[in-house]
Amino acid sequence: MANLKAARGRISFLKFESQNLQDSSNIQTHVVDYYKSLYTANNSVPNNGLVADIIPSLVTDNENDMLSSVPLVEDIRAAVFSMNPHSAPRLDGFGGLFYQSYWDIVGEDVVKAITMFFEKSWLLVNFISNFVVLIPKVPKADTITQYRPIALANFLFKIIPKILSHKLSSIAARIISPNQTAFTKGRKIVENFGLASEYFNLLDNKCFGGNGGIKFDVFKAFDTIEW
C-alpha cells in the first residue's frame, strides 16, 4: 500500500515546450531550473521612494518595539503548546508531540534557539531546511506551472512565525487595509465575493461615461516574490 501511494505521488511525466519529459533526472532538472528562475529577484526595480510616499507609516515606535522584542520563556512555551502535536514530522523527524511531551528536557534548548534568532537574527544550521512538495492545481497536471510548491518546515522553525503572528495579531486589523478580507481575523473573504457580484450586476445600468470591468491576472503576484 505504501509503495502504491508513493507511485501515485511521483511525477513521472511533464511537458516542456515541445518536449515530453519522462526521465526522472530530466524532470528534476526542469523543476529545479523553473523554480530557481521564478524565485530569483532581478533587482531591476529602483527605489524611488514612491512606496514610502504613498503608504503611510502605521506602526508606532512602541508597537515596533513590541514586535521586535525578545519573547519570554512563557511566550515560547505557549507557542509550542498551541501548535498541532500530530502534524507530520519534517526533515529532523521530530513533530510537535515530541516537543510538548519532553518539554522539561528540551525546553531550555528550544528557548535558547528561539531567543538567539530574535537577539542576533541568527538561525541554527539546517534550521530552515524544508521538504518541498509539489501539489497539482488541476487533475492530471502535466506542466510545471500546474503545480504549486508547498514547503514543509521543521517544527522548531515554525515556532518563530507562530510567535510573530501572535504579536502581529494585536495590530493587524488596524494596519491592514479594510479591503483585504482574507486571512485577517474578524473578516471573511466571502464579503469581497458578494461585493464583486454586486458590481457586475450593476454593469448593465446606464450611467454617464459608461461602465466597465477589469480582470487582473494575479498569477505573478501569488507565484513570485516580486512584481
UniProtKB/TrEMBL annotation:
Name recorded for this polypeptide: Reverse transcriptase domain-containing protein
Gene source species: Liquidambar formosana
PANTHER family linked: NON-LTR RETROLELEMENT REVERSE TRANSCRIPTASE-LIKE PROTEIN-RELATED, RNA-DIRECTED DNA POLYMERASE
Alphabetized Pfam families for the sequence: RVT_1
Source taxonomy: Eukaryota, Viridiplantae, Streptophyta, Embryophyta, Tracheophyta
Source superkingdom: Eukaryota
Domain Reverse transcriptase: 138-227
